[in-house]
Design goal:
This protein is of the alpha+beta class. It contains 2 helices and 13 strands. The chain is elongated, with a radius of gyration of 20 Å.
Length: 187
């Protein structure tokens, strides 16, 4: 059954400007600018004062579900340019200590001595994402950035590079795992 008209709205906070042109959303804030292309979705985006309105006409169930998805994407962009996102990863090892080296720019990670292997894993961060070792906690990595997708994908790339192969994963729990996901507060 089709819904004739469904809508949702999102309030834009102070200090943030949103531009929408043919379903290309650009959000500017104190921490920077984020752009997302939503042309693949058949949804109407309207800017009305300090609110964004998401509208679907004659939509079936899956089509109407896109309203909330697009609203969440734009809301995450607004949160990113005002506060930013942070992921914390912990090194877990039983015998061979994992050695993680971060380059000077903080945009790439080198993982050595994983399960005693001689192989060196190189992981590059996504654009706009920085990585650093935690100062207060031993064996912890902090990834920060404005774009939630880029930050979470960088954390996933690090976690996926340390997979245990040809061994029982219930016994060999070594790896680098996401321990915390936070929204950075504006400093």
């Amino acid at each position: 059954m089709k819904d004739i008209f469904k809508q949702d709205e999102l309030t834009i906070p102070e200090g943030v400007t949103v531009n929408i042109k043919s379903r290309q959303v650009t959000v500017e804030g104190p921490r920077g600018t984020l752009t997302k292309n939503l042309r693949h979705l058949n949804i109407e985006l309207r800017l009305e004062g300090s609110k964004i309105r998401f509208v679907v006409h004659h939509g079936v169930r899956k089509h109407v579900a896109c309203i909330r998805t697009v609203r969440s994407l734009v809301n995450n962009m607004i949160t990113g340019v005002t506060k930013g996102f942070q992921y914390k990863l912990r090194y877990v090892y039983a015998h061979f200590p994992i050695n993680v080296i971060i380059n000077k720019e903080g945009n790439a990670v080198e993982i050595r001595n994983f399960l005693g292997q001689k192989v060196v894993f190189h992981v590059k961060m996504r654009e706009g994402v920085s990585c650093e070792a935690s100062k207060g906690q031993k064996d912890e990595l902090t990834i920060t950035g404005n774009d939630l997708e880029a930050v979470s994908q960088s954390a996933a790339d690090i976690q996926q590079s340390c997979l245990v192969k040809n061994k029982d994963i219930r016994k060999f729990l070594d790896g680098i795992y996401v321990s915390e996901r936070n929204v950075l507060e504006s400093e």
